[in-house]
Amino acid sequence: MAKQSNILSEIAATVIDLMKDHGTAWTKPWSTVTTNQGQPISAKKREYSGINRFHLGMVMAVKGYQSPVFGTFQQWKSLGANVRKGEKSTEVVFFKTLLKKDKNDKGEETTSAIPLMKTYRVFNADQVENWDGSWIEVKEDDRDQAWNDVSNADWLIENCGAKIEWKNQDQAFYMPSQDRICMPEKRQFKDESGYYGTMFHELIHWTGNEKRLNRKFGTRFGCDGYAKEELIAELGAAMLSGITKVDAEPRADHAEYLNGWIKGLKANPKIIMTAASQAEKGVQTILDAAKTTIDAVAA
Q1: In the sheet where 41-42 sits, what is the strand order?
Q2: Containing domain of residue 95, as a range?
Q3: For residue 33, which of 76, 75, 67 has the smallest C-alpha distance?
Q4: In terms of pLDDT, which residue wins out, 208 or 17?
Q5: Which of 107, 181, 255, 277 is deepest in the core (most CB within 10 A)?
Q6: Which tops the pLDDT comparison, 44 or 116?
Q7: Mean pLDDT throughout 13-25?
Q8: Percentage of the chain surpassing pLDDT 90?
Q9: Tally of domains within the chain
Q10: With 80 as the cut, is the pLDDT of residue 275 above it?
Q11: Is residue 9 domain-shared with residue 108, that is, in the same domain?
């Protein structure tokens, strides 16, 4: 358990440093580098998800890696490449579910799922030599059947199913009671970075509605519940930025609440893991909704 806690602390420390160094735009270095280089991907050509996508994206930004590809020491070795002497690895986490069988008070057999977190170390392609660009082959029945790699932000916004209203106004917000996003007109933004950053932020809020992921929104501007939801929205917006390959700008008006989490992150590193996990679910909800829309049209 101590080993796992160290990993969470390391991730939290990176977030804290980015918040301190970049203030409002603490997600900008990460979203920018993944926009240019691509989302973190394994030597098996599988995109990382959840906390690993978030963590490795930050590592790429902080260490200046030009490649998004990561692999374990043995994976690189199997590809004929070798990790350069003295290179330091990055720890990532892997979750698997253990099924435990038991009996209840009535003697009936029950099954409970126990999440188990394991860790392993990976090296970026910039840290190895002699890699010829080949990938580890994965059996067809062992591939992840996930829909991803959306390349057009407007296409995603139009097809995700969210009810969006554009008006000449000074605020952008999501209304849970009406399940509706209210946005200023596109021409009101000084550039596309601010527009997509704001839109992605509100789309993540949209996924928290009881009809979808049923997250509990904070009822008061500045309360802990509100701040947590804002952190989830910013993480999710940064993820969508990388996926759609646009340079989205974080929400400046929520900077004080995001940076207010520095104290909480120091006290409980698991906060960032929980927020990143919920942000990932929000992103996937948007991607799945867009795919459902396209499938319906195609049918």
Answers
A1: 41-42, 69-71, 109-124, 90-103
A2: 2-131
A3: 67
A4: 208
A5: 181
A6: 44
A7: 77
A8: 36
A9: 2
A10: yes
A11: yes
pLDDT tens profile 228-267: 888 899 888 888 888 887 877 776 666 666 777 777 777 7
Are 69 and 161 found together in one domain? no
The residue ranking higher by pLDDT, 111 or 92, is 92
Q: Are residues 122 and 184 in the same domain?
A: no
User: What is the chain's mean pLDDT, rounded?
Assistant: 82
Q: Yes or no: say if 30 and 17 are a contact pair by the CB < 8 Å rule.
A: no
User: Which residue in the block uniquely carries the two structure tokens 């917000």?
Assistant: 173
| SS3 per residue for the chain | CHHHHHHHHHHHHHHHHHHHHHHHHCCHHHHHHHHHHCCCEECCCCECCHHHHHHHHHHHHHHCCCCCEEECHHHHHHCCCEECCCCCCEEEEEEEEEEEEEECCCCCEEEEEEEEEEEEEEEEHHHEECCCCCCCCCCHHHCCCCCCCCCCHHHHHHHCCCCEEEECCCCCEEECCCCEEEEECHHHCCCHHHHHHHHHHHHHHHHCCCCCCCCCCCCCCCCHHHHHHHHHHHHHHHHHHHHHCCCCCCCHHHHHHHHCHHHHHHHCCHHHHHHHHHHHHHHHHHHHHHHHHHHHHHC
Nearest to 263 by CA among 296, 215, 224: 224
Tell me, yes or no, whether 163 and 88 share the same domain: no
Domain membership of residue 136 (yes or no) is no
